[in-house]
Design goal:
Four copies of one chain form a homotetramer. By secondary structure, the first copy, chain A, is of the alpha+beta class. Chain A is built from 13 helices and 17 strands. In chain A, helix 1 crosses helix 7. Chains A, B, C, D: It is an enzyme of class 4 (lyase).
Chain lengths: 390, 390, 390, 390
């Protein structure tokens, strides 16, 4: 499978085309809208989240609730578009209109793509950059991820993103019973955190940051259960599934790092404390006594849950201003505010869940036959039986 | 550019083909051999490093020291091949020979690709897996990275990998003067560490681990200087350069995480402490007061140094055994030893340097014209002037 | 650059996302609509061409008439959609509605994707196949090609598709003065043919076929002028530009062959009659005495016009029926009629022009720097001067 | 699967790396060498074919005759390399040596990549171009194709390339009994032609051309039998298998066109004469009364034999000289002779067979699961049963 997205933050719509989705997949707008809503919730989001109420339209590739095997096109319209038609319209404008419309943005915000993007693409008006570099684009990546989760769901594979840390407050009680429990609890949490005590402190930290006109980041974790062993491959450097997931996590706006299993802790442990011992029992097959490696060996799934974490920096849009330079006047200024979230980590956990779901669904479709959901199901079941009896 | 590698750990040779290298690049086996030697050094390596003395042969794409624009093929022969011809030969063998030769490996080592790889590809003899999943393959990735560094070097871009932490011992004094200083000092260090005091403790930790029949991991850092702003792009999720680098780092055997700039620390800081303020001065153009984001905004280089770190788990081959299960008898056993390094972190810093160099060189060649080094140089110089005067 | 399309023939819309378009390209819906209209004209088209009057909307990647460097999304709505919402809707339907709506198509038409597509994707209702396999999709490929032509136009490269043969009637007088003349004359022709006498006979052949309830195919030619030498490459099998163009031509619905320059005639000539001798003159540089190879040597442009032809089979939808088999009853039947064009060759010449334009524009953007039109222009001009003075 | 090749005509070796070959495939050098020998035979080849006697070495990815699932590396050494070490060595040479060694080639041959390649990559010595653009590279493409044929053979799919026309002499009697008959007869023919009478005339035409110091081209055909229906897809323009095969054929050195089934004849026929009527019978399933479309509908295999033809121009190396221009002196000259084949069409039919085999094997591996031959076999058999009972 492959997909492309298009669309600007204040343009008429976000669009995605997803190619290679197996025929027979059950897919409805309602399913996807649930995930879009999950992305829009979250303590600490600003006003725009209320305006948006994102709704997807499926405008290709699905008929009567079933994927045709054809490319699927997804559209999320911008409900506020009518206020932006002049500023963001595709058609040329007269020089008078230009006068009126084009309040050029010449003041790059630190931590955004503004300055470098303008240099790269030769824009003097940095709106031409920020409209696309905006995290608004993650809306449609969540839509694509929702589709991917639907594939996984039909194969009894579950993916959940949740929040581990916000602004230095770390969840301590993270011993969820199983992935359904993890989902149920975090789904109710305003910060998508399993630990109710930490949840409170996280919200306080968000309030505090807001009061200070500042922003905070955090750490999200994605857990995947139900995977067969052997997805991904060690045979070529670019076929390792953990590598692809790492790239996907860092491709999310504002993410600065990623780790699997015990992750960076591995630098401080002995080998005898890091690797997961192998057991076997009749009827179950091979299992591991632990899951420190986060579900991967040699770039392949081991059958244990995938556990991957990503770190999100505080969103760079700030009340508390940072110094920057106007590209026209070359005068220093303190950076302007485009929007007002003080913490986007809960939403980011949904985005992370989405991009991980995509990489895994994609690897599975590639590996188990690309055409039809029913055949993929059969092949996966065969693989599960095979590895159990190996 | 793109490349593929092939070859088994005890096969006749490792091979790489690198496609899309611009014509006119200066390239000699001697250059590449220097990097192969850097990979083989390092306190804590086992016996095989002595046997190997890897030497590259350039068997295509280069004539009289200059790249032709044609694909470049690199070969590193296995000096020990004569002892392995029967066990690893490509040609079919008779059933008698099979008797003699095929001591099947049926005991998977935890933390290796052995078990899962065997399940995936249907092998009962896990030698068929471990020969390819072995970190021996990084030899030829270093050769490819050396070629990439040559491209960067002609564009005045420097890449250095070094060691920050081994077995819980962290370098404290890491305030190198400049990247040349960093290279010079770490090149002399048996553990590729800039901090001489930490270096001592790291070697002790390695000795200690060895004595205990255990292994230790660590953290490596790669620094890149001299980059123009605007390499990579924010316009599509899969064109962000930091995402590609993250994927590359995690694709290295035994790497479990990656971070940029302040990385996971970003979860504990306010936005006002994280982003890099922008300054401007006549003749120099835009600079940043700090480099907490590690040289990236919006998936693009900012012009500041790239700073990326990866964590390597302790190598899973152990004297101190872990429990596993024989796939034929289903009997538990404690895992066997295939080789004897107790710490491969210094070598891994050279591999990390190599894969980062590749991603950057590749992004530059794509962006600045794919055919000729002289044109790329011109285009890069123009870009540097343009961004300075922006 | 890369693009994906989505959308069914009677679905709500066709969609394309085009990624990697250089910033600064001038692009308006009006430009693209002209090409959509060119595709819809043509003697021999059926009723649906009148209904459609295709109009593109640019819903991403363009602002005030200029490409932003971001992905461009193009939408062509189906004007007849309101009559198809039940039959083609994306949302699940109740079993009663199903009764009403789902007149399943169980009778595969020979020469269409119907039967094989149904087998591949597991559909019992072949509407699930034919809605996507329909040549309706070429609408949005023409839109993408129009964008590509805009890139070429800004680089002074011209592309024209025209008709050489229909139903056995071959244009004899094809000695156009220059490409502008070729465009001007064929643009006025109801069959897009340069030869006015042949034009008459072609229209008669179309009338005749229609009267007989039959259909006819033909040969189209695409000419490209103004190209610099050296686009494409011989260094790897998959980088030859003529190979890519051949693939693109055959990817058009109903195309069964492709040839360059003298093409299949080359099988009947001596080498001394086939190759194009090289000349040189001060100020002009290298030229060729002839252009039998159609503008390519070694998979690269020579600087001479590209001349490529494709053959289109008669469209398989027929009044004059062919025998087939109902997949439910297994009873033989004679194939039904879905639409009524008797000749689509003139339209196909516009599609061929579009896909050739795309391949060339793509190769140029890759080769001359991917970010900005102004830099590409500069690099192309430099290349032209360089090859002239070589 | 994917592959890259490297190596110059007079360099030490040709190399290929083939990635993604399913584990368990039976593969020996002997198998591949048979195909290399088939490429070297053929009436009309010059002296070098005798020198070469190409032999492949499998230096990675295969153990004891079975593919491991790992990348496979293939090497064909240049037996004449010892005479070329100075001229073609990879290492830098002193300026004195340069004097001695570098008889620069400054005279481009019409019809070769010489001139344009030199312009593109900035070479003044056109040896830097012709060494890679040489059809010598097809040796290793035949090796890769031989591997692909091995995959197909294990799935009971057969591929045969043969010669239809040379220098205007067309085979008339081409009614082979079945593909085994076609292979057996053409294998014995010095020009790989099924028609014994045409064979004689072809050889005479070759003799005649040689006598005149001229060269002749021809038409080759590739036939594939045993394919299941539904390989390839209509859902996206770049997934059509006929399109990929068309691109592959034109990527062969000196090929100028390609057609499927009745090909260009389709321009002269009515729709009722072109499409293949569908029949069905118990136990056999769907069949076609004819195969005018050459085995494809909607870019997918129909289950009928694939029939594809390519046209090869006369090889441009000539005794009978063509005019060209020295790039240093700008003096006209008549083109020199690098080698002396007067007809390479029989060899080209083996190359065409190889590249077609690759595209089909690749499409099958993608579609039916990428890891293991035994699973692919199972999935293919299931697909065959499914389509029979559809």
């Amino acid at each position: 499978m492959r997909y492309l997205t298009a669309g600007e933050s204040h343009g008429p719509q976000l669009t995605a085309i997803v190619e290679g989705v197996p025929s027979g997949l059950n897919l409805t707008a309602e399913n996807i809208n649930k995930d879009l809503a999950r992305r829009q919730k979250g303590y600490g989001r600003g006003r725009r989240m209320q305006i948006e109420k994102d709704q997807v339209q499926i405008v290709g590739g699905v008929r009567h609730g079933k994927a045709l095997g054809a490319p699927i096109s997804l559209v999320v319209e911008n409900r506020d578009w009518k206020h932006w038609t002049k500023i963001m319209g595709a058609e040329p404008i007269s020089s008078e209109e230009e006068q009126e419309v084009k309040r050029q943005i010449t003041r790059p915000r630190p931590g955004h793509a503004d300055l470098v993007g303008a240099m790269k693409y030769g824009h003097r008006d940095m709106r031409n950059v920020l409209e696309r570099s905006s995290a608004r684009e993650t809306t449609v990546r969540v839509a694509v991820g929702s589709l991917a989760k639907q594939i996984l769901s039909e194969l009894d594979i579950k993916v959940v993103g949740h929040v581990l840390e916000i602004g230095g407050v770390r969840a301590e009680n993270t011993e969820y019973r199983d992935i359904d429990d993890l989902l149920a609890v975090t789904e109710e949490s305003p910060v998508r955190c399993y630990d109710r005590q930490a949840e409170q402190k996280m919200m306080e930290a968000i309030d505090q940051a807001k009061e200070n006109g500042d922003s905070i980041g955090g750490i999200v974790e994605v857990v995947v259960e139900g995977l067969p062993a052997g997805i991904g491959s060690y045979v070529q450097y670019d076929r390792k599934l953990d590598s692809k997931i790492a790239g996907a996590i860092v491709s999310i706006n504002a993410f600065k790092g990623v780790e699997f299993g015990i992750g960076f802790e591995a630098a401080r442990k002995f080998g005898s404390q890091v690797h997961d011992e192998i057991e076997w029992s009749e009827g179950t097959g091979y299992t591991r006594k632990s899951n420190r490696l986060g579900g991967f060996e040699g770039g392949m799934t081991t059958g244990m849950p995938i556990v991957v974490r990503g770190v999100m920096k505080p969103i760079p849009t700030l009340y508390k201003p940072l110094q920057s330079v106007d590209i026209e006047t070359k005068e220093p200024f303190t950076a302007s505010i485009e929007r007002s979230d003080s913490c986007a980590v809960p939403a980011a956990s949904v985005v992370a869940e989405s991009v991980v779901a995509w990489e895994i669904a994609n690897a599975i479709v590639e590996q188990f036959g690309v055409d039809r959901m029913d055949l993929i199901k059969e092949n996966i079941m065969k693989m599960r039986a095979y590895t159990r009896d190996f």
